[in-house]
Write a structure and sequence with these properties.
alpha+beta; single chain; 313 residues; globular; six-stranded antiparallel beta sheet; Pnp Oxidase, Chain A; 5 helices; 20 strands
Length: 313
């Protein structure tokens, strides 16, 4: 009798997970059999415990990762970032005067409560209207070689230190999809890595910095006024300069011109796919990716040590 009850409880437990998977990932719902769900929980590719999702969200905050956001199964992707839920300044009396003091708070402390997440407003801005009426929200972030997807719900609009933000429920389900894209290395701010980029030869070159790089392409930062210098599907030439030395010149095709919101405002970017015309050129790019990843891992290690959180690579 006890075994029958245990078997029934297990079936209900797995059915509940299947319902959540069907809600947020309907295109794959048919593939999530009991056995697949159990295997996914064992491997960490499926996450139902908030504590299993916490480290990914902490990493997204501390490493300033870009989030992809989808609502109600729509294919349109919006962009955001996880933001800190910093408490308001505290008023205290000192020598007969009221002064404002920073409360005791460490970056990301609110995530440890595992009851909500704070995101910056979506880009493009129309997403901020859609999310208010949404029935479900999917957020996606990327590690070096995997996609991490979380199912959640919109709660409310909020303000953090006079900055408008979106308040979402802490995710109720998560999954990890390995090998979804080429390994990408984020370029740390401390790295002396700059670019000279030439679009159409009738237009001026720009000097800028890369945001991330893989063996297939890179994302680069541009100024708002520089958007007019480039067009999607146009071929451009990129000079990669590391520590003051020109390492390589490579051609690439502009796949997208987009804008995302970051903590200091709007960020404009180009997504470029490399045209690797020789094995020697590909090997040089691979070497740059490896150097970039080493610098990023060093930065992550320092952030981990400072925060006491083991961040995800």
């Amino acid at each position: 009798m006890a075994k029958e009850e245990e078997k029934k409880d297990k079936a209900l437990f797995l059915q509940n997970i299947q319902k959540k998977l069907a809600l947020f990932f309907p295109e794959d719902a048919y593939s999530y059999t009991y056995q697949v769900v159990e295997d996914g929980l064992d491997s960490g590719d499926l996450m139902i415990k908030p504590s299993n999702m916490l480290t990914f969200l902490q990493t997204a905050l501390l490493d300033d990762k870009l989030l992809e956001v989808e609502m109600d199964g729509m294919t349109r992707v919006y962009f955001s970032r996880i933001y800190d839920d910093i408490p308001d300044l505290e008023e205290i009396e000192e020598d007969g005067e009221t002064i404002l003091k920073e409360p005791e708070y460490t970056t990301g402390d609110y995530l440890k409560l595992m009851n909500h997440i704070i995101c910056l407003p979506l880009e493009p801005g129309m997403g901020n209207l859609h999310i208010r009426e949404s029935k479900k929200v999917l957020i996606r972030l990327f590690t070096s070689s995997s996609a991490i997807e979380f199912g959640t719900f919109f709660q409310d609009l909020a303000m953090v230190r006079e900055i408008p933000v979106l308040r979402l429920a802490f995710p109720v389900i998560g999954r990890q999809i390995r090998g979804t894209r080429a390994f990408r290395a984020k370029v740390p701010a401390s790295m002396d890595f700059s670019l000279l980029v030439q679009g159409n030869k009738q237009r001026p070159k720009i000097q800028t910095k890369p945001l991330d790089i893989s063996v297939n392409g890179m994302a680069i930062q541009i100024q708002k006024k520089e958007q007019r210098l480039f067009q999607e599907d146009e071929v451009c030439t990129i000079h990669c300069i590391l520590d003051g030395e020109l390492l390589v010149k490579v051609n690439g095709t502009i796949r997208h011109i987009s804008k995302t919101r970051e903590k200091k405002g709007i960020q404009y970017r180009l997504g470029i796919k490399f045209d690797l015309s020789s094995r020697a050129l590909a090997a040089t790019i691979e070497s740059i990716v490896a150097s970039t990843q080493r610098a990023h891992l060093k930065e992550l290690s320092e952030k981990s040590e400072e925060s006491g959180i083991k961040l995800v690579q």
